[in-house]
């Protein structure tokens, strides 16, 4: 494969260049720049299939089996697999470096070399490496988030304050986004496992040899997909459990807050009732305490203390009646 010619044609075209790394079936690596037209000619796929890898377009996680290639768009992994070559976009990305290291380890173990003990087609081994990378990456992110969420939620339940609440909300947002990403990969694997015709399209080597397959020939690929579906499904279940834990904690916090609000309402009821009774008492004492000359007020000064005393007793009776009625209606608790 004449890589320098592809690069030259790409540069002459003036199109946007892209950074790729190629790993063939013998484990040889080469890095080159090529635009989408050069890549289409190299792997012989249609533009609509290559559009899945366009970083400017928002496509969900996709594993597409074409006539002569497999196109992968799994989170940060954007790759094309042929019967004898694996192309990975942007190998300088920090998320791609571990994948390349994994590929090199497999090459050192002769997993990618001709004549290896594993007689699986190259496209299956390359697909397995990509699935292993994305499943391991998402699982690591889930474990990292899990180790952060539990202490944060515990701290929030111990001390309810705005700072802890804001921290839990941010973690919940991260959890929701990660769960959606994991679910997309999970749904894609589940969809492939449910359609034997789609899995047959992944047998690129057989297509080149013009060998026809049937539904019984998908067992090897099915085993690979089921293994990583189980792994990603476990990650999804872990995130779902974590999400339920946060939701249950929020419900618990809301119950605690409602309880505190009820207590404040009870205190407000006592204060309002007491204020009303004091206002009545003040009204009575103010009326009889005015220095206004009345004929019936002459010689009856001793009555004032009885009026004040009886007014106080009546106010206490009114206060007790209101509180008792509220307790009878279960508006307050003692």
Class based on secondary structure composition and strand pairing: alpha+beta
* Helix-residue proportion: 55-70%
Please tell me the overall pLDDT.
80
How large is the radius of gyration? 38 Å
Question: Main beta sheet: strand number and arrangement?
Answer: 6 strands, antiparallel
Share of β-strand residues = 5-15%
Descriptive account of the structure:
The structure is a single chain. The chain has 334 residues and is α+β, with helices and mostly antiparallel strands. Among the domains are: 119 residues, Lipocalin, CATH 2.40.128.330; 70 residues. It is 63% helix and 10% strand. It has ten helices and six strands; from the N terminus they run αββααββββααααααα. A hairpin with a 3-residue loop joins strand 5 and strand 6. Helix 6 runs antiparallel to helix 9. The radius of gyration is 38 Å and the shape is rod-shaped.
